[in-house]
Amino acid sequence: MSAAAPAPRFRPGARVAVRRADPPGHLRTPWYIRGKAGEIERLCGAFANPEELAYNRPGLPAQPLYRVRFRQREIWPDYAGPAQDTIEVEIYQHWLEPAQ
Amino acid sequence: MTDIHHLHPHPHPTAPDRDGPQGYYQALEIAVRELLIGKGIISADDVRRAVEAMDARTPAQGARVVARAWTNPGYKARLLADGTAAVRELGIEMATTRLIVVENAPALHNLVVCTLCSCYPRMVLGLPPDWYKSRAYRSRAVREPRAVLREFGTELPEAVELRVHDSTADMRYLVLPERPPGTEGWSEERLAALVTRDSMIGVTRCRA
């Protein structure tokens, strides 16, 4: 564990967007959440990058991992439930960018 | 036994074999396991012990945690702040994952799913039910969670926020259900008996 984890870029409450990308390999970013905007709920810590671990590489530096909260109606335009329903997803920092 | 059925002269049909052809991953598992044992890295008994330990974990572990939180406000605060450390107080080790405990309230209901595979808080709930691993649950719990809850017999009022937790990475989630009314003064053991597996996944509530 020599490589230090990059500093967390986002604080709880920050508005972020999930990158809309489709690289090959083992990804832990669900398809349905790519390109969507939400809010940082908490920083979970730094964890070895699963996209590297899957290929027996060390996955370092570890990536900050966040809980990101999204509004269901912003994920599914025809969501049948009320406006306050939410979904939280764990997203690694390299999949997030600032959003308005 | 005087079961008339067993007096019939015709032979019993034997239970059908349900062994299908060996799949790719079964063959892979056997090959890797045999190599690890052959090279002396692990023993057959290590594998057996690990399977036995996994099978011994049950939702009773999680129920103990919930009952302790219901009766001990200090414990509940520690559990919500750091689930991993708080379950360790009760002798439960999360191993490589970390535990986040999410609390239900009159205006908030939590539901847990893993859309990517079937991540499940096994250390506190044991092995997941088959439906948790099904493609239908994994996709519908995020897409139409209220319809899924309804199929589990849980009607959620419109005024309540439903918060779905998709376990996509290194965290595992345990729902802390609301303590049922009418259980004031109950012992931890008696309360723990009310706490079901499904209520800790979030597809239902606890009832007294």
Explained architecture:
The complex is a heterodimer of chains A (100) and B (208). With 100 residues, chain A is mainly beta. Chain A is built from two helices and five strands; from the N terminus they run E-E-H-E-H-E-E. Chain A has a five-stranded antiparallel β-sheet with strand order 4-3-2-1-5. The N and C termini of chain A lie far apart (35 Å). The mean pLDDT of chain A is 94. Chain B is built from eleven helices and four strands, in the order H-H-H-H-H-E-E-H-H-H-H-E-E-H-H. The mean pLDDT of chain B is 94. Chain B is of the alpha/beta class and 208 residues long. In chain B, 43% of the residues lie in helices and 12% in strands. Chain B has two domains: 25-55, no CATH class; 59-201, Nitrile Hydratase, Chain A, CATH 3.90.330. The two termini of chain B are 39 Å apart. The A-B interface holds A 28-30, 32-33, 44-45, 47, 50, 65, 67, 69, 72, 75-76, 80-82, 84-92 and B 98, 100, 115-116, 142-147, 158-159, 161-171. Strand 4 of chain A pairs parallel with strand 3 of chain B, so a sheet runs across the interface.
Radius of gyration of chain B: 21 Å
* Oligomeric organization of the protein chains: heterodimer
Total domains of chain A, how many?
A: 1
Largest sheet properties of chain B? 2 strands, parallel
Can you tell me the CATH architecture of chain A?
Roll
Give the strand order, joined by hyphens, for the main sheet of chain B: 1-4
| Unreliable segments of 5+ consecutive residues of chain A | none
The general outline of chain A is globular
CATH topology of the largest domain in chain B: Nitrile Hydratase, Chain A
Report the mean per-residue pLDDT of chain B as an integer.
94
Strand content of chain B: 5-15%
- The CA-CA distance between the termini of chain A, in Å, is 35 Å
List keywords for this structure.
A: SH3 type barrels; 5-stranded antiparallel beta sheet; 8% helix; globular; B: 208 residues; alpha/beta; Nitrile Hydratase, Chain A; 2 domains; two-stranded parallel sheet; 11 helices; 4 strands; 43% helix
